[in-house]
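Box S1 | Example of a co-folding query
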Amino acid sequence: MQKILLVEDEPNIARFVELELSHEGYEVVKSADGRAGLELAEKGGFDLVLLDIMLPGISGLEVLRRLRRQSEVPVIMLTARDAVTDKVTGLDMGADDYITKPFSIEELLARIRTALRKKGAKALPRLSFGPLVMDIARHTVEADGEPVELTGREFSLLQALMENPGIVLSRETLMDRVWGYNFVGETNLVDVYIRYLRAKIAVKTPRRLIQTIRGVGYVLREEPGDASCDG
Ligand code: CA
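Box S1 (continued) | Returned holo structure for calcium ion
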């Protein structure tokens, strides 16, 4: 069972997140205080740390700074909306990701899975879904055994989808992933790149893998009935 440390002083958020993560099969240890959270994190044994920034005792950023002296455990910061400075500082200090409050549990779970996969990526730098195989270390993608030539952005976009198969990712999430949190641009840029990606994959395989969820975003999922076309 994977063990997550949750450092969060808002009892409602902490309870809710604990409940949902436990439901998903994670073991959760909670701390409502920066100093106590740091002590727990330093003892080790966690697969991931969820770290609020505004904490009593010492701030989440300070917890992160001290923790990084001795630990490479994946850390996802929980930040307030518009706290851009905190996000930048957190990432500079070695946070793996951040998520802005209020967040949906699906989004948090997706971020956690991604962070945990990245942690294990050195051992297993390949992702696969249906006919798609992505080698992260070599930066290559194959569909039905045929190489698919992708640009850096297209590769990052497909990687985000392949790291979260079956999970609907919003345009905003994909923007953050591929263009960065401080990129200012229209989210329809995502639609444009999804189109490129679909076209390049379609040349190699007839299976439709990237689905549009209208008004929400995109998901990597095989359409029902596609499998019967395999022959
Ligand atoms: Ca707080």
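The first helix runs from residue 11 to 23. The chain has eight helices and twelve strands.
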